[in-house]
Amino acid sequence: MIEIKYFGAVAEKTQRTFENVASSDISLQDLLQDLKEKYQLDSMVFSVAVNQKIIPKETDYKLQASDIVALLPPFAGG
């Protein structure tokens, strides 16, 4: 099972902080496309982390059943 964690504005838009996806044979791009359609995330700006490592959304990354995907709002410096 792939765990998806939502933070900040993304959590507000999805109205949840996490969910699990049963699919274990899915690419990161396919997962993000499914989430964009499900929650209308097209206009949102967010970063993606897989297993606590920020990776570009365009990366050809095949998710594993134990992966944790986080959708993160833009970071502010300080």
From TrEMBL:
SUPFAM superfamilies: MoaD/ThiS (SSF54285)
Entry-linked Pfam families: ThiS
Protein's UniProt name: MoaD/ThiS family protein
Domain of life: Bacteria
InterPro entries according to UniProt: Beta-grasp_dom_sf, Mopterin_synth/thiamin_S_b, ThiS/MoaD-like
